[in-house]
Amino acid sequence: IEESGLIVKKKKGTGFYDRFRNRIIFPIQDNIDRVIGFGGRTFDNDDPDIPKYINSNENLLYHKGKYLYGFNNAADSIRQADSAFIVEGYIDVIRMHKEGIKNTVAPLGTALTEDQISLIMRYTRKINLAFDSDDAGEKAMLRSISLMHQQGLDPSVICLPSGKDPGDFFDEYTTDDFDLLVAEAVSGIDYIVNVHIDSKKEYNANERITILQELAEYFNNMNDDILKIDFLKKISSALGINENILRQELIKLTRRATASSSHHEDITKKDTGVSTELYLLLLILSNPDLLPIAAGRLDDSYFHGKWTRKLWNAVSRASDNTHWDSGTVFSYLDNGEFIEYLSGKLIEDRLNINPESQIIDVVSSLKEKSIRERI
Fold it and tell me: SUPFAM superfamilies recorded for this chain (predicted)?
């Protein structure tokens, strides 16, 4: 029971306490209806010190980067409709199903992962993203679109009214209203361009360069030439830059980014205090929203150092909170010197140079190392 995360050992004294006390419990099931974990939502929305959502710890059965909430109930509907809706939370899924939109699923308390996208793509390539219409939702949307572009897929993006999520949308609107939003959905490429470029604004040369630097990583992540061509056309039209010049500039920018990230392993080796395992964890601590890139592909068996394994487990526990950062992680560690050491490392600039590319590279390195060790 302790390993499943249902109970937690008390820090003081003996015994355990109920981890999900005073919470609404959402059973999490795998694709064949077995309960493998739980999510819990607090009844108290006003206390900032209480995480709104928590989830079971990862264990032998439960890997939150590999499953989707509601998928066991949605799979047949996804196949029949040849489309899927991805929302952010458990309540969003329940409300969508209640309204008859049963081809709806959600990630398990984290951002969408490659494994989750691959799971849906076994059933359909028509994916609609309907995330919360706030800053956090926009950030999650952009990252999810980019992940899908890596798999050669451009999703549709449903733009909900400001301040709404799918769970409360239907308190004021009908399914017909939702159908209209679906009909007006924009492509993932259009969404990226619209977020970064204001069509009503005239940009000077320096502003255009800054925008292209922001868009270069999206271009680099696209694993399909047709997507790249469409992306170039949209940017060209929005900024008034010739497509050929635009392509050359984006390729140049992505090469620079790749060169910068490819040096991280050499830099790491020069710093005898930082192993590859620890460097990955520092990248995650510095960029918490990128954890799903690693969480979907690694578990604690990839961390052989005593402290790196403890740190990975602390990150996993902290990420059960809706909003978490390095401070949340440190609260799960009990060694002051180690925390002080990590704090010193987190101020290094290299952790913010194309962190997504760096994390992908380091994860691949750890997986290759694991394969070599098993041979």
Answer: DNA primase core
Phi, psi of 58 (to 5 degrees): -65, 145
| Per-residue CA distances from 91 to 31, 137, 223, 279, 322 (Å) | 19, 15, 33, 36, 14
Instruction: Give the CATH number of domain 264-374.
Output: 1.10.860
Domain locations in the chain?
Answer: 7-55, 71-192, 199-262, 264-374
* Whether the Cβ atoms of residue 296 and residue 108 lie closer than 8 Å to each other: no
pLDDT tens for residues 346-365?
Answer: 877 678 777 887 888 888 88
Nearest residue to 276 (alpha-carbon basis) of 336, 358, 194: 358
| Mean pLDDT of the chain, nearest integer | 85
Strand ordering across the sheet containing 186-187 = 104-105, 84-86, 127-129, 156-157, 186-187
Q: Give me the phi and psi of 363, to 5 degrees please.
A: -60, -45
Contact 65, 110 (CB under 8 A): yes
- What six digits make up the tokens of 259? 């060169």
The whole-model pTM stands at 0.70
Does 175 have pLDDT greater than 70? yes
In whole angstroms, give the CA distance from residue 116 to residue 317. Answer: 20
Beta carbons of 62 and 28 less than 8 angstroms apart: yes
Q: Which of 191, 179, 92, 187 is nearest to 140 (CA)?
A: 191
In whole angstroms, give the CA distance from residue 286 to residue 35: 33
Which pLDDT band holds residue 226 (cuts at 50, 70, 90)? very high
- The architecture of the domain spanning 71-192 is 3-Layer(aba) Sandwich (3.40)
Task: Quote the Cα angle for 297-303-309, to 5°.
Answer: 115
pLDDT tens-digit series, residues 51-84: 777 888 777 788 888 899 999 999 999 999 999 9
Strand 35-42: give its sheet, edge to edge.
Answer: 23-29, 35-42, 53-55
